[in-house]
Design goal:
The chain is α+β, with helices and mostly antiparallel strands and 171 residues long. The protein is built from four helices and eight strands, in the order αβββββαβββαα.
Length: 171
């Protein structure tokens, strides 16, 4: 698992990459939400993300150790990431996901997180359901900014006038 990075530090690193793209590493990140805290995790540190599976509890363990589960024949230990970091148990819901750590660590463990926020570095098409209109509008604005030189915010007036021309807006 990668170390925690503040948003300000991440923005500085991103700015440095934009100024000198040859010197920077090209690594994609996965955004996760744990309670009210948002984290960025290197995709190289993750094997996959799956819906929270059924767990077999293990007696006499810490309260943040939720148990074990079988994923395609491999036994994974499951840690409540919020319970471990904040001491507050995660209430599994429809957005809860199990983030499986990469096989390179040889620990076969998964972290239960509240929500997957999406991929960083241009993956604006990943929207979890149910989605908010504000989130969808922000993602469409980001795609539009990348396609054109001048950023044009998407508002109700421009949405209705461009709806017939842009197939992306027929959502």
């Amino acid at each position: 698992m990668s170390t925690s990075t503040s948003l300000r530090d991440y923005q500085r690193t991103l700015s440095a990459r934009l100024v000198n793209p040859d010197a920077a590493q090209s690594a994609s990140k996965l955004g996760i939400q744990v309670g009210a805290t948002r984290w960025l995790v290197d995709l190289a540190d993750t094997a996959e993300v799956i819906p929270a599976p059924a767990l077999a509890q293990v007696p006499l363990t810490r309260n943040w150790f939720l148990g074990v589960t079988s994923v395609r024949g491999n036994l994974y230990s499951v840690v409540d990431f919020r319970g471990f970091t904040e001491g507050v148990a995660t209430v599994p819901g429809e957005h809860s996901r199990l983030l499986l750590l990469a096989d390179k660590y040889r620990i076969y463990s998964g972290l239960l997180v509240d929500r997957i926020l999406g991929l960083e570095l241009g993956a604006d098409d990943y929207v979890t359901k149910p989605f908010s209109t504000a989130e969808l509008t922000a993602r469409l604005n980001a795609i539009q900014r990348r396609r054109s030189n001048a950023p044009r915010p998407l508002n109700k007036a421009s949405h209705s006038s461009r709806k017939a021309r842009d197939p992306l807006l027929h959502i």
